[in-house]
Structure formats: C-alpha cells, structure tokens
Design brief:
Blueprint lengths: L25 H6 L17 H9 L3 H13 L7 H15 L2 H13 L8 H13 L3 H13 L7 H12 L4 H13 L7 H13 L3 H13 L13 H13 L3 H13 L7 H13 L3 H12 L3
Length: 299
C-alpha cells in the first residue's frame, strides 16, 4: 500500500485494506500485496471541513492536502476521489507540498480518480517527494523496487530507499527493510540487522513487526533468546500479545494458537477461543475457520 499523510499531525503506522485491487490484472494483484509497506493517514485533524474550505480559498496548501485526504477517505465529507486528486494536484503543483505529491502518487498507483494506474507519473512524484524529505515517499519507492512494481526489481535500490526513510524514524521502512534482509539472508549474514530492524519498527508501534518478532523468538531464529538459536516462548508470546493489543488480527490468531498449544503460557482453550473470536469479529476469515476447528477438536 502507498502512504497517505496528513500535514498537521504525526503519521500513525496503520494499514489500509482499501489499497487492495480486485481482479486478475498482474499489476493490480502485485499492488494488492502492498499492505505491509505503507501507512494510513493519522487520526482526524481538529480542523473541520468547513474551516478547511475557508483555508483552501486563501490558497493554504496544507489545508488543500488535509481536505484532499478527507475526500480521499470520506472522512467527514462524501467520498470523492476526483476532488481529492484536484486538491492534491493544486497543493503539489502550486505549493510544492511534498505530502500532497506523495498522496497523488498513491492515487496514481491505485488508479483512484483515474481510469488506470499511472506508474511512471507516480514514481516521478514519489522521487520528488522523497528528495524533498518525505520519509513515507522514500519508503514507498523502496517497496516499488522491492516488488518490481513499475520498475525492475532491484533489492539494492529498495534497501537504499528504505534506509533513507529509516533515517527519519519511519516505522514501516524499518519493517520493510527487515523483510528485505530476511529474504536475502544467506549464511545468516543479516541475523542481527533483521532483528534490529524489526525491533525498531515494533518499538515505533508497527504491529506487523511485533508479529515478526514473535515468530522469530518462538522459532529461535537469528540467534535470539537467552540461549542463542533456542526458542524463547515467553518473549514470543509477549510480542504476539502486543501485536494483538495493537489490533492485528494475525497477532490475535498467533496468541490464540499459543493458548491452544500451551506455548509460553498454560494451555487454555477458553483464552484461545476468546482471542479467535476477537479476530473473527474484526473480519478475519481465518479466525472464523479456526474457531470452528477449535470447537470440533477441543484439546
């Protein structure tokens, strides 16, 4: 997914299901996997839509960007992708607002407000925003190079752009860098870097990184734990719990599995069922399936 950012508040590391494309187009199928790489806009800004409209009339470019985000997501105003594009475009072209430039690139990649994706323009916009200091745009370029979307796949370029984003403390970039290193971890050369990057992302609130650390400690990977390369169930479950409490349904399912199997905690089917039900209520189809399985095969 591609990052949309609000101009007046810190970016919060969340993930937007709206990014996924339907259908069998390979480019769109690839883009639907961008969930782990991007962030959503942060919490609602105190400015009301009416106040923003007044500021827009005064050519306030930050207000254009904020109002564009609201139209983009139907936040306090009707969902209107074309209006969002117009506002982002004005803020980007007239005001040089790098947040608007980044958001316009997001819309180009998802073909929002236009008939088909415009990856060439999106990459130009992202590069401009990243070079102006937008860490989210740098993270997004890293993902494009990592996935080979719109550009030839190039892990070295992906790593360069992710690293650029991490210098600004971008949580998603730390997570994506950890994933990139994990995929190319021949001879365990990247063990420490993988754990360090996931930990940096997790400490900045990224639930996917928390989940990754839970998996690493559960399986004793990359020399973690009190005894190197030995499973550390207690630490694993603490990370799964943090992911679950941060709203990750995958974290809820992982925690439920620990309770079902007695990994790091005493086996407790009621707790397993409780966490699965929370995940299912949040729309996780796998959790619904696991609940049925748990009921039919109690331990």
């Amino acid at each position: 997914m591609i990052l949309g950012v609000r101009p007046w508040i810190p970016v919060v590391s969340l993930f937007i299901a709206r990014c996924a494309f339907a259908g069998g187009d390979p480019t769109r199928d690839a883009l639907s996997q961008m969930m782990q790489s991007l962030q959503a806009p942060g919490p609602a800004d105190p400015h009301s839509p009416d106040e923003l409209q007044k500021l827009v009339k005064k050519r306030n470019f930050a207000a254009m960007t904020e109002l564009g985000v609201r139209y983009w997501h139907g936040d306090g105003v009707p969902l209107d992708l074309k209006m969002a594009r117009r506002l982002f475009y004005s803020a980007a072209i007239e005001g040089g607002d790098h947040t608007a430039i980044n958001n316009l690139a997001c819309m180009d990649i998802r073909a929002e407000g236009i008939e088909k994706p415009d990856l060439r323009e999106a990459i130009d916009f992202l590069t401009q925003a990243a070079n102006a200091g937008c860490a989210e745009a740098a993270n997004n370029i890293g993902y494009l190079y990592s996935s080979g979307t719109g550009v030839p796949a190039d892990p070295s370029e992906a790593r360069r752009w992710y690293t650029k984003a991490t210098t600004a403390g971008n949580a998603a970039a730390f997570y994506n860098l950890g994933r990139l290193l994990e995929r190319s971890n021949s001879n365990n050369a990247n063990d420490k870097l993988i754990v360090d990057d996931y930990t940096a992302a997790a400490m900045r609130g990224d639930p996917e990184a928390m989940l990754a650390l839970g998996r690493i400690y559960r399986d004793g990977l990359y020399g973690v734990g009190a005894n190197a390369k030995q499973p550390d169930a207690a630490t694993a479950i603490s990370w799964f719990r943090r992911a679950a409490e941060a709203g990750s349904t995958k974290g809820m399912r992982a925690l439920a599995q620990c309770y079902a199997d007695g990994v790091g905690v005493p086996a407790d089917q009621r707790m397993a069922e409780s966490w699965l039900r929370r995940a299912a209520n949040a729309g996780d189809a796998d959790a619904t399936r696991d609940l049925t399985k748990l009921a039919s095969h109690p331990k």
